[in-house]
Amino acid sequence: MAALRLGDEAPNFKAQTTEGEIDFHNWLGDSWGVLFSHPADYTPVCTTELGTVAKYTDEFNKRNVKVAALSVDGLESHHGWIKDINETQNTTVNFPIIADEDRKVSELYDMIHPNADSQLTVRSVFVIGPDKSIKLTITYPASTGRNFDELLRVIDSLQLTAYHKVATPANWNEGEDCVIVPSVTNEEIPQLFPKGHKEIKPYLRMTPQPNLN
User: One of 28, 46, 53, 160 is an active-site residue; which one?
Assistant: First the structure.
């Protein structure tokens, strides 16, 4: 199966999770979504990751983002693991963990990379827009835990640039200046960006973040 690319529709699926059966597209509704996979239950790095995501619940909610995790283990294993996560990470896991013992979802999303491991999923991350299209993919090796501050930063950029004719420069963070996209003419700038702009080069024009007061 070909790998999923940016702009592709995120494949729909039905699956059992720790919060009951979900139909993925229906579950997302008009929210943004993050789907991320784990090599296995009861693994140390994943334990810290799921605990971190639970602690970031308010940040995801603020951005209208639903989060779902996945591993190729079963529900009973997931529920036992959640107890460990809650205990060791001082939090409460409050998002679904998908049971994917038949690897149906893993294969739909190309989460098993045979040259890394023929059985276990790599650390895939998919950010999915309300239109159900894939907006971001990141793949980490099993040995490296994910940076969820970076994931929030990217979601901030995706949500900003979806509704305003800007892009975000290197290392951008919420509240910092943005790049005006090349398709905007200089004549259009005053109307689109009333806060003003700075032209560094004809192709590099900066403006304050447009969706902040």
Answer: 46
